[in-house]
Amino acid sequence: MIVDLFSGPRGWSEGLRLLGLTDIGLEWDTAACRTARAAGHLTVQTDVATYPTAPFADRITGLIASPPCQAWSRAGKRGGLEDQPLVTQTVHDLAHGRDNRAEACARCKDERSLLAAEPMRWLHDLRPEWVCMEEVPDVLPLWKQYALYLQQWGYSMWTGILNAADYGVPQTRKRAILIASRVRRVTAPDPTHAKNPAHDLFGDCLQPWVSMAEALGWGATDRVAPTVTAGGGKTGGAEPFPSQARQALLDAQERGAWVLHTNRNQQPDGSRQTSDPYNAPAPAFTVQAGSQWVLKRPATTVCATDRIAPPGHRNRDKGGESQLASPDTVRITVAEAAVLQSFRPDYPFQGTKTKQFEQVGNAVPPLLAAHIVSAATGIPLPERQPEQAAA
């Protein structure tokens, strides 16, 4: 049995399917549980912090966890940063069989902070054959603390930062990863893609990063795209590129040249827009007037929103990861966001549009998950991965 803590819409589970494995997920959020069940994944809706480990004793093979990261995240109000010492102390106590979670939780600034210590309770009680955990890069010091105790218990360990783009995901999403096994030696999964592939001494060459345009079927992966205006409400819509924007892109491709509009008030057809640019469709694929966003790059990190920021832009701390620092973003549908996370475009995300984007943004990219679990279990991925259809 494989148990997935904080399982969400089941990015890990979709990765397991590529390896011929299945798991049982524990998740609190109703919309995420509905998504998981619609996708055929066994799910228990529960609070991981209160769920007992005893039902899984002597039955568990693997443990997966992507706990909430409020105490480490650079986004949001970051009030949980003050809770880091409490989290690390709780991990230490749980590793030694002392459950002081109630006392520590009462002292936390953010009650969610202590969830990052929950996997240690399960590890101490169950000692699975292998472990995979994932979180934002700033959680790496906590993973290294976990690694110290796991090594003492006889596990082979690897911790570090992986970029999803290096494993075929059309997105430059970096995450802190922990991989452990007590039955085999583990190390980082070998990358399959690279930003600038080069042949090695043996003539082998990694594949180039998968571009956003290639993944979404927008074409012209080696050319500069025209400005594409985005429409729809704050939570997206069925057609994110109205006003013949997609057709304008295709027409430009057929002409063998791309037109880059540098005036924010200018539309793809040459007409001018007189309304407030912040209330009107946002320009896309540009960082600022006169600049160019080349489509051969992967997308930036997909967050809980319908917008993707140009490369080089960071998210504002205020309001969390969904608040992008630049209005020069491209609006995408849930299906397109799913593809950029390496889900299939028809993955059955449930709930409101906002909840669907939240699930996509918080999920582990299934293709990255498959490579991580492969490193932990020794089960190889199929040589040819199922290709993502255009959204």
From TrEMBL:
- The EC number(s) this enzyme carries: 2.1.1.37
EC class name: transferase
One term of GO molecular function = DNA binding
State the Gene Ontology BP annotations: DNA restriction-modification system; methylation; negative regulation of gene expression via chromosomal CpG island methylation
Output the InterPro entries linked to this UniProt entry: C5-Methyltransferase (IPR050390), C5_MeTfrase (IPR001525), SAM-dependent_MTases_sf (IPR029063)
Which residues catalyse the reaction?
69
Q: Which domain of life is it from?
A: Bacteria
Provide an example Pfam family for this protein.
Answer: DNA_methylase
Respond yes or no to whether keyword Transmembrane helix is given for this record.
no
Positions of the UniProt region annotated as Disordered: 306-328
PROSITE patterns from the entry? SAM_MT_C5
Q: Which UniProt keywords apply?
A: Methyltransferase, Restriction system, S-adenosyl-L-methionine, Transferase
Q: Provide the family line.
A: Belongs to the class I-like SAM-binding methyltransferase superfamily. C5-methyltransferase family.
- What protein is this chain from? DNA (cytosine-5-)-methyltransferase
Give the lineage.
Bacteria, Bacillati, Actinomycetota, Actinomycetes, Kitasatosporales
